[in-house]
Amino acid sequence: MARSILVPHDGSSHAQAALEYALETFPDASIVLFHAIDPFEVTPTEEQLSPLTNAWLADQESEAADLFAEAKASLEGGDASIETATAVGSPAQSIVAHAEDADADQIVMGSRGRGGAAGLQMGSTAEIVVKRANVPVTVVR
C-alpha cells in the first residue's frame, strides 16, 4: 500500500530540505506538497493587511503555484510525481486539518520557515503541528 506524505512548503530552505528528505525516504509514497495561505501575514513592505477579496486569493494561489514550480524545479532528477494543495488559514492549523482531511499517513516538514530565528531549534508552526497532528511528524533541519 502506498503511503501518503504531506510536505508543507513555504519557500524556505528548511521546507525544501523536508521535500527532498520525503522523496528520498519514501520513494514509493504519494507526496502532497502543501502551502497554507495565511490571510493574516503582513510582509515588511505592507503597512496593513490586504483586503480578503477574490483577487487577493487568486494572487495568493498564483504565488503558491510559483512556489510549487520552483520547489519541483530544484529537485535533482525532477521526475517525481508530486501533487499540490493549498488552504487558507493559519499555517499550523491548515497543515493539521489538511493532513486529516487527506488521510495523510505522515507529515514531513522543515524545522523553521521563512521567518524563523536562527537560534531556534524548531519554529512555532512546526511545534504546533508536532503537538496537534494525529499522524507521525518528521521535522527536518
UniProtKB/TrEMBL annotation:
Homology family: Belongs to the universal stress protein A family.
Listed CDD domains: USP-like
Pfam hit, one: Usp
Protein name as annotated: Universal stress protein
Gene source species: Natronosalvus rutilus
Domain UspA: 1-141
